[in-house]
Design brief:
- Helices cover 45% and strands 23% of the residues.
- The protein is of the alpha+beta class.
- It has six domains: 104-216, Beta-Lactamase, CATH 3.30.450.20; 220-314, PAS domain (Beta-Lactamase, 2-Layer Sandwich); 370-479, PAS domain (Beta-Lactamase, 2-Layer Sandwich), CATH 3.30.450.20; 494-597, PAS domain (Beta-Lactamase), CATH 3.30.450; 602-677, Helix Hairpins (Orthogonal Bundle), CATH 1.10.287; 685-840, Heat Shock Protein 90.
- The strands form six sheets. Strands 2-1-5-4-3 form a five-stranded antiparallel beta sheet, sandwiched between helices.
- A hairpin with a 5-residue loop joins strand 11 (373-377) and strand 12 (383-386).
- The chain is elongated and about 170 Å long.
Length: 856
Amino acid sequence: MKAGTASGYRPAGSRRKNLRCPGAERQMERPVNITQTQSKKRSFRVLAVAIFLALAAGCLLTGYLGRVAEKGFRETVNRDVLLTSSLLHDNLGDVENAAKSLGFSDAAVAALASGSHADLEHANALLDRVNGIFDMSICYLMDRNGLVLAASNRKEKSGFVGKNFGFRPYFKGALSGRLTRYFALGTTTGERGYFAAAPVLDGHGAVTGAVVVKRNVAPFAVFLKKYTNAFLVSPEGIIFISGRSELNSRSLWPIGARQRSELQASHQFGHLSFAPLLAREPRSGSYVRLDNKQLYLQRIPFGTEGWTLVFMTEPLIVANYRWFGILLTAVFVLLLLFFGTLLRSKDTMLEASKELLKSKDDWKRTFDTVPDLIAIIAPDGRILSVNRAMSRRLGITGEDAAGRLYCELLHGSPQPPPSCPLQRMLVSGKTESEAMSGELLNGDFIVTAAPILNEDGTIESAVQVMHDVSVLKQMEQSLKEYAQRMELVLEGSNDATWEWDMITNLGVHNERYYEMLEYRPEEVHSDYDFFLKTIHPEDVSQVQASLQGIMAGRTDKYEAQYRMVTKSGKLRLVMGRGKVVRFEGGRPAKMAGVITDITQMKRLSEEANRISNLASIGLLAGGLAHDFNNVLNVIYGNVNFARMLAGDDPAVAEPLADAEEACERAQELGNRLQALAQENAPVREPVALAAIIEEIAETLFEGSDILHRVSAPDDISGLEADPRQIRQVFENLLTNAKDAQAGGGSVVISLENFTVDGQEGLPLPTGQYVRIAVQDSGIGIPEQQLPRIFDPYFSTKDTYSQRGMGMGLAICNAVLKRHRGHIGVESEVGVGTRFSVYLPALLPIAGRTPEGEIAT
């Protein structure tokens, strides 16, 4: 073997080893790298899919949160607008009700009819009372020419009396016979006000003038300051009331040139600015741009004249909720990236941690942006953290709040308050809510406690959210107070109230309604059929015709005057008024209104007419009686002279005797006419009325089959009257009682002290009176004749004789009116008649007996 060969020899195994190692290493590294790469790719794909799913879920969550927030936001805005509209309706409803009630008042009718100082003072007093009770700015009465005759501000330097407001549209509307509403800037006072004008109708239904009531709307403008952009807008687009006073009398949307000139000429809004805030007239539920902000606009009609309430609100909560969804998505994505990149590098993990901390900081900022008071509370009741709104309301920092018991910090008590939602949540494991008042937090809240659960389903902590509803609570309290005030007003007015559900055909009434009908509520089934049964049959068609107009959609208001039939069969004259308060499917579904008993009002009106007729007839009768007596004296003298010439010739003497008797009767009639016409004040002196009546009764009933009795208490008040005239009154009354009982009977005369306080329906001033009742058991007077028995020449007796000439009761009525008294009658055929006489009592003084006799 050669040395060279030997020297170049390498073992085969060694050679293969040196040749195989690099290849083997490469072959071993390649699968490892491939596996790692494939693993990384799989991890990347899984991470990418997870991130995609997280983003998709985040988009869905963000969209859902945005829709929920926008729905809640719109509901909140709608609720605020509706509550504001309801508050404004209720506040201004007083103005319309006051105007309508004044339009029916006797004082207003009398002031317009006579224009006398006394009637104008009565009207002024009524306007003062209404102005004070309902907190109005001014109430005033105008004649048909628009001249103010009476006003509640008449004593002020700028009073309306003597001024003419006939140019105002509300006056023209009232003059046409309808209630007219009007928003305007006062030309005299400069106040923004709401006007309601109602027509004043005389006894024939003719419009004699108008009554106007105004309320200053400045308090409502103060209320609107709670909202950044809230307006009451006219049909033309002019802002009348705003939470921002600088926008008053400015156009909200563009207005045409013709409308501009009409608005300038009307002076309804004062100085106008036609630079529009919006580019076009907005639709409700749309978004508009104002002050470089995107605002949500809600617009609802107010009243029936085209006025609207407009609220524009920035939807911050919607953006916050969407940002919250975005941030939650970012948190999840970052968490996925954090765990995905944790295996790749420490630097990448650190960067992800920073991103996570940033997301947490963003979440914290969002947490602090929410306006509700939020606290995260541990199961043992200790606070873990609070948001900025909560810490500001508590007046401490979030660090100071952490670790303290929530019941001590939020409620000032070592123990949870009753019905605590957090305690209920810890028991039920579900979200719980409760309305609570927080003295330490200075407000009313809706408190919601929601659990945060561990993986095993146990409660780790809880989130307590406190939504401040103080403003809504105040509005609710204002509505309750208004409802109570209206209930007191209705109770004071003695009106019956009703509600009629036109779907179920059932009605709801107050106690006054059943009192008027003499029923108990449990005795009747209050439906439409029962309502018709309470109406006099002759009036049913009239009421049904009025309701038919509502059913047909021609009107939404109901008004009818009819006779109500009570349980005992008595009749009450009533005025029913109402209005549709709810529609369903464009058809009326519910009505509400009042029923006013106008029986006494009708009686007082008839009494006033009777007094007026009596005065007119008396004036005519006085002149006739004077001329009649002059002619009669000539006839009577010639008859006497003829009898002297006739001597004892019966053929001539008897007719002349009949003529002389007729002259005497005619002379008596003339004397009665003069008594009816006499307007001089009676000569007053103390009278012993019981003694006078006893003397008249003894004389009249002597020898008859009529029993009589006179009764008077020992403490009867004294009287001052004309003895001759008072004697004539009771002679006529007792004579009528005697004539009504030709076959015998009884007469009871009773005297008693009586107080008139305005509740009896008597046409008498408030004060003390003596009431004398004359009750007989005669044939009675038919009901249809009762309204006429005090008319001159009206008699219920069968034949026309000296005693049945129909002058007695007319003279009684005239005498009592001169004595500032009154006479009334009640009668039932076959039972008897009762006359009630009222005379002003003489207040007792030292040295005078109850009957008015001078004590010795």
